[in-house]
Amino acid sequence: MTDGVFGRDSGHEQVVYCQDRATGLKAIIAVYSTALGPALGGTRFYPYASEADALEDVLALSKGMAYKNALAGLDLGGGKAVIIGDPRTAKSEALLRAYGRFVQSLGGRYITACDVGTYVADMDVIARETRFVTGRSRDDGGAGDSSVLTAFGVFQGMRACAEHVWGVPELRGRRVGVSGVGKVGRLLTGHLVEAGAEVVVTDVDEQAIDRVRAAHPSVEVVADSATLFRSDLDVLAPCALGGVLSEETVPALRAKIVCGAANNQLAHPGVEKLLDERGILFAPDYLVNAGGVIQVSDELHGFDLDRARRKVTALYDTAKAVFALAADEGVPPATAADRLAERRMAEVSRLRSILTP
Fold it and tell me: Boundaries of each Glutamate/phenylalanine/leucine/valine/L-tryptophan dehydrogenase C-terminal domain copy (predicted)?
């Protein structure tokens, strides 16, 4: 398996396998880059079909975190971890604490946080074994639920998109489709309704739909994502699964903007060019959904919500810079975002050669 990692030239600095038979822990921690600082990224707890699938996921996710943290202006590298198993049945205090000890063993090269299948309460348990953990509860000195500023960051990115396309950073009267109204999608819907947008939503979870309609009776509901993607929209916000933008879905889009919270929205490299050719502005997901990592990273300095919110508000300006670079260099915004992130990683890491006492 290790030969496979190096054989694909993934570019990672370190990939660590963690196992504790007594608790059933099987985890992989991937550190993509520490060029800007310790690698920060969440822990995903998921019932992968195979170890190979888990490895594939953690390699991709950790690289994405490096780019996200760099573009967000954080002095943090990129990493990620996956725990293999069904969190509904496999998760236990002992397993989480065993995992925490593996995180601690890396001596701060990797700092963990919440992700799919892990929650604030889990971070509090992990923190009993390592100090290299964020996303803890307010009672434990942490930032609490990171979906709050994730949604706010997506909204700021959407405002920047609106200014780029229509000349003003306003969404009043715009028809916005939100695919997936879990925690982030629900909070994003609230921002949009407050801004005067006409909001259309869909979700596979009827309870999630009910919660949104109870809070915002004006929202319209459609049957599924396929219907939403073909709808007459100004903005599409994918906030559920990744890989939703593909050769099959992009030709059906009628929206002028795609800006959502879901990770890895492009099914594969090249889809960003299809969007660009159709005149659809795509806000790179790792740019606009960085509010969560900005929120949890603020814990490293003693969490202050107002300070974290100011940093997330700055994603509006970062998005504008990405769109300006894309226009100047004649490339899609996704390519421009990558270039800005890579430039910052290279320029700042070079400073390490200047020795200090």
Answer: 144-353
Name every residue whose Cβ is closer than 8 Å to that of residue 113 and which is 6 or more positions away in sequence.
Answer: 40, 41, 42, 43, 123, 133, 134, 135, 146, 293, 296
Question: At a CB cut-off of 8 Å and minimum separation 6, what does 331 contact?
Answer: 325, 339
- Residue 24, Ramachandran bin (φ over 0: left; ψ between -120 and 50: alpha; else beta): left
Question: pLDDT by residue (tens digit) across 227-246?
Answer: 999 999 999 999 998 899 99
Give 77's contacts (C-beta < 8 A, 6+ positions apart).
31, 32, 33, 34, 35, 36, 37, 38, 39, 40, 66, 69
Residue 2, pLDDT score:
39
Distance, in Å, from the CA atom of 259 to the CA atom of 157, rounded to the nearest integer, reads: 7
Structural domains of the chain ordered from first start: 2-60+76-138 (3.40.50.10860), 147-343 (3.40.50.720)
Which token pair is 256? 């002028």
Q: Which long-range contacts (CB under 8 A, 24 or more apart) does 218-224 make?
A: 218/193, 219/189, 219/193, 222/177
| Options 63, 80, 91, 311, the catalytic residue | 80
Instruction: Give the separation between CA 286 and CA 263, rounded to whole angstroms.
Output: 7
pLDDT number for residue 3: 43
Asked if residues 21 and 98 have their Cβ atoms less than 8 Å apart, the reply is: no
Please say if 311 is a catalytic residue: no
